[in-house]
């Protein structure tokens, strides 16, 4: 198996830092590795596997002799560099939403639809964070026939990048000290608040974030229009870890015990479900670790064959960096670069 020449684009950002960490954790073997950012952070230092690297400014030529680029530098940056990477024979695994819904771009959650990777033409997309954690939970339940899916998300500020994390900190301190604070990342103050808007509004009244969950879920799980999906996404003053309340109507009867057993044995999922002892997952359980946690599994009272559950995960890991590096690992194992 040939070892790839790797680049991490956006290495100085929240997701890029996690990608760097997880590349080491998953033992990705490479021939060479480089770390890229905008001109702002170029020249800064990154320590990786006890070796110091200088961050380079991303420009087309830096992608010469690079096989795999793990990118988390925003949609416009990906759109700018993806053609340059592909032209040079490289492959980009992209965290932005720039290419996710393009037909010839596989949208992949490792362990869910790995076979779709074979269809890549130089670009592989990593799903939106709120979609990602849900896929590992839904995939093993798909065989019961998903008729209707309603998702409500409670999303941490880390999903909006480093500036948003800093804004929650500063806004909280200002609020406690009774000082004025001008919010920049969010449309409303984020401290001690819940904001029912993530990304811009679409014509149908849903936000773009909500429509990402709808459309990406369909693409990854290969569900057709007969499965009805709806999502409400809210930003909450949590630093890291997205929570989701999920209601699923199935074609066939399925009991909470069956769901518990299936998810207990599912790849990447951990069930914590013992409400009598106050055992259910929270963002503090999920932050910094790999599994998607599921709890509060119960019969849904509004649907005939319905199940409700609570799903929590580290949005920076499974929602972005972990899945990116897992995809990279699968691409190497499957010889797809
Ligand atoms: N945070 C999440 O949970 C999450 C989840 C899924 C997907 N994503 C996606 O991942 C991407 C990055 O998110 P983030 O939260 O890590 O953002 P971030 O903390 O703001 O980091 C952005 C990174 O991109 C680099 N960058 C910006 N403009 C660039 C340019 N023109 N050329 C090269 N590098 C450039 C930045 O370099 P400088 O240091 O030089 O500014 C930095 O390394 C976004 O597309 C986001 O939608 C994020």
Distance between the first and last residues' Cα: 11 Å
Largest sheet: 6 strands, parallel
Binned, the helix content reads: 25-40%
How many structurally independent domains? 2
Question: Do you know the CATH topology of the largest domain?
Answer: Dihydrodipicolinate Reductase, domain 2
For the secondary structure, the number of strands is 14
DSSP helix count?
A: 8
Oligomer: single chain
Tell me the CATH superfamily of the largest domain.
Answer: Dihydrodipicolinate Reductase, domain 2
Radius of gyration over C-alpha positions, nearest whole angstrom: 20 Å
What would CATH call the architecture of the largest domain?
2-Layer Sandwich
| Assigned CATH class of the largest domain | Alpha Beta
Could you characterize the architecture of this molecule?
The structure is a single chain. The protein folds into 2 domains: 5-127 and 320-333, NAD(P)-binding Rossmann-like Domain (Rossmann fold); 132-315, Dihydrodipicolinate Reductase, domain 2 (2-Layer Sandwich), CATH 3.30.360.10. It is 28% helix and 23% strand. It has helices at 14-25, 75-87, 129-138, 162-176, 208-221, 256-264, 283-286, 317-333; strands spanning 5-9, 32-37, 45-48, 51-54, 56-57, 68-71, 91-94, 123-125, 146-155, 228-235, 242-250, 269-271, 292-299, 306-313. Strands 5-2-1-6-7-8 form a 6-stranded parallel beta sheet, with helices on both faces. Helix 1 (14-25) packs across helix 8 (317-333) and helix 3 packs across helix 8 (317-333). The longest helix has 17 residues, at 317-333. The chain is globular. The mean pLDDT is 97. The site of NADP nicotinamide-adenine-dinucleotide phosphate (NAP) has 28 residues, from helix 1, helix 2 and helix 8.
